[in-house]
Amino acid sequence: MAMALVALAALLPWPGLAAQPVEQMVSRWRKAPQHVPSTHVPDGPLLGNGQMGITVGFSEWDVLDAKVAFHVGHNAFFAAPTGNWKISSCGYTDLTRAGRKALGGTAVGGLSVSFPASASTKPAGSAELFPANGSFVWSKGGAGIHAWVHAAEDVLILNLTSSVPGRAKLVLWTYNGCSGPPNPTAARNTTDALPTQAQQIGSTLHVARANGWEYQLQAYEVQWFHLLTAGEAGARLVNFSFTSQCGAVEGPCMTAEVEVSPHATMLTLELQKSSWKKPMPEPRALSDLSELERSHVQIWRHFWAKSFINLPDSQITTFYWHMSQYLLRISSTGYASPGLFGPFVNDDQVGWMGDLTLNYNAEASYYGAASSNHLELFEPYLQTILDYLPSARLMADSQYPGSACAGALYFAGHILPFGVTSSSNGDMGQKQMGLFASVPFILYWRYTRDPNFAQRAFPFFEGLARFWECVLVEEQDGLLHDAQDCAEELCSPDGVNQKDPTVVLSMLPAFFRTAGELAALLGHPESQRRWAAHARRIAAYPTARWRGKDVLRNSAGQGEESGPTGGQFASFPLGTVSLSSSATSLEVVRQSLEHFFDIWPGGKQGNSFCSIFAAANRVAWRPAHLFQLWESYLKNQSDPDCIMYPNGMVLGCGGTGLENVGATAYVNELLLQSHEGFLRIFPGWNSTGSFHLRAEGGFEVMAERDAAEVTSLSIHTLQRCSSSCRLRSPWKVSHVRVNGHMWPVTDGELEFPVAPRTSYELQPDRRFWV
After folding, report:
1. Number of Cβ within a 10 Å radius of residue 26
2. For the CA atoms of the chain, what is the radius of gyration?
3. Cβ–Cβ < 8 Å for 553, 544
4. 493 preceded by cis ω (within 30°)?
């Protein structure tokens, strides 16, 4: 087992993946992480399986004692809700002090491993993360660790080695508090500590933390989250001890020792869940570790086979893209959606409660997931939103009572999985929460046209459409206006009304069109006609003058915050303006983007990284300059607030991180665009490159080019695909051969019929250059 894992870390070639850039990709840390633990974006190595997340911290190389810490988080672990509104609270009067919490780890909760000083005396070491198989290798002197989280099971497997035989110290612990003033009356408790326990179970270390108290069972299924550490393959833990308080914020912990030597010592850290009434876990021997390894490698091989990009002239972009795929894979599978920092929560006072913030953050993580051909990663988000529908209906009934709004859905700004609200501040004055929540649903539908998904998602679209039918106002121009709203967060805290926010107007047409498509498929013709009509009658974007030209405003409201910086939403993620739009519309959006970058040099506005580059690319705003800004952002080493860490996380200037994997949409659309109803191949990339991506309409596209032209193009249809494939010809020819058959190119476009599950090879007929 140990030898096989070393082979994994060495990234021996996998059949069928020889051309994959990720196979040779390694993230290296030249110094210890500075933000582990962290209340915001961690900069250490990250491991996980989509629900359980591990953040790795380790001591500086010049520290004599070598210590490596594995902080454990989980998407389903957060403070349980209280009351009919299901607001996460930890029993506090101040309901805003809740949200996601840390489980445990090292130094601040989880598992830490300390090697004998004699094995780690050299003031140098290495730490490397291999995204191809989700493994981490650390070494210092003669001490070493190889670690990986199984791609589907909640277990961390560690192999410890030491050139000097001795004993390594293990500390397994959990957190102490829940942050915020306690409410003894509600919690029946005199502290703010969530229930914890720590003990030895046979030869296993055990700590646990509950996500609430017994009284909360009336509103929520309170659970225990257990961490268990055991020796495997003959390794035995010895010298167990218990400490009730391991530090200022750490709660109870268990310690033990294990023999280490040049031969690998194997440990496992397993996460289990149990009901409140069953507080003890069931330790189990992981008997077939070789099978665990085999299935782990197979899952990662299957994942990376779905897509790739390779841009030899921009290694930083190739690295960012693959690390973003890796980060979303280890953050978003299973049943509970990740929040602002994914499952990598390693502090009890995590920023913005670590929740799903619906006014762009939660959705942005998925902006590039469909075009990257990873639709399976949408599932936790989709289910989390659907689970919230009863709470959204309750909120609509409360704020919009009466028969006129019956059946409407209205979303809070901060939510958690399983229908829980994470804050008591409601919609934050912004009606757009549900619209933003619909963006991943719309993307999923566009890329799949799955009738089962349509059936599942229709209640969400129907209730949200009912809400907007209730609040939109038809004015004298015959168009539908959002008369009372807030442009994102720009009205806070002054409360000035900002009519017709551009962000809302940009999403409403796509939302109503999609709702109509679902209604048509499911046999609701009246709803289909009504919603399709709404999509055509949404008010025009508000404009202003800047440097003598028209630009888009954030809203039509009054005040400085309604200034002309709203251009990005007009083209992305659901905007109405593209390269197919009129010259006038394109010029307004391009000029608006010019103004944005004038205000925010380098695009370094707190929330914009995940969208501004994709938005500018869709309207071909200064393409070469835009890409230069992009690379400068990723390569930046001078601005600690806007930087890409070695783990691939981009710390956005606003302090959040996971949503920035969504900027893969920009990279994908440099290579392949399909949002206009036809394909563009390499629309924004003129150098050597290759890709395997997904397009709307049920197509997978594989293409390659050199510095002169596209040299290879294959299109594979999926089970549900359009009846024909339409694309802009990537060659300046009058005819293209499709599987050997000649097809004419008219006005730069060609269209040919397709059948499901069929591959098509396209080649220019060089006899007909134009």
Report:
1. 14
2. 27
3. yes
4. yes
Burial of 295: CB neighbours in 10 Å, binned 0-12, 13-18, 19+ = middle
Distances (CA, A) of 427 to 300, 356, 434, 473: 39, 13, 10, 20
Question: What DSSP designation does 375 have?
Answer: G
- The two structure tokens encoding residue 618: 């869709």
Question: ω before 573 within 30° of 0 (cis)?
Answer: yes
pLDDT per residue as tens digits for the range 607-644:
899 999 999 999 999 999 999 999 999 998 778 888 99
Lowest-confidence pick of 163-177, 578-592, 671-685: 163-177
* Cα 681 from Cα 690, distance rounded (Å): 11
Q: Which two tokens stand for residue 247?
A: 């530090």
Name the residue among 527, 553, 529 with its Cα closest to residue 539.
Answer: 553
Give all strands of the β-sheet with 135-140 in edge-to-edge order.
Answer: 27-28, 125-130, 135-140, 143-149, 155-162, 265-275, 223-232, 204-210, 196-201
Q: Which of 437, 451, 461 has its CA nearest to residue 532?
A: 461
- CA dihedral (445, 447, 451, 452) positive or negative: negative
Q: Could you give the CA distance from residue 477 to residue 372 in angstroms, rounded to a whole number? A: 41
Rounded CA separation 77/99 (Å)? 9
pTM over 0.90: yes
* SS3 at position 210: strand
Q: How many DSSP H helices and E strands does the chain contain?
A: 15, 38
Cβ proximity of 116 and 166 under 8 Å: yes
* Both structure tokens of 529: 């006609």
Residue 36 carries which DSSP code? Answer: S
Helix (H) or strand (E) holding 46: strand 46-48
The span from the CA of 668 to the CA of 665, in Å, is 5
Residue pLDDT, tens place only, 168-195: 999 998 886 664 444 444 444 445 567 8
Question: Which tokens go with 715?
Answer: 């299109």
What DSSP assignment string belongs to 698-734? Answer: TEEEEEEE-SSSEEEEEEEE-SS--SEEEEE-SSSBS
pLDDT digits (tens, 9 = 90+) for 248-259: 667 789 999 999
Looking up tokens 């994997």, which residue turns up? 661
Structure tokens at 51: 């629900």
Instruction: Look at phi and psi of residue 280 and say left if phi exceeds 0, alpha if psi is from -120 to 50, else beta.
Output: beta
Of residues 471, 468, 362, the one with CA closest to residue 422 = 362
Query: In the 8-state DSSP scheme, what is residue 194?
Result: P
**Both ends of the chain: CA-CA distance in Å?**
60
Residue from 109, 101, 44, 113 nearest 76 by CA = 101
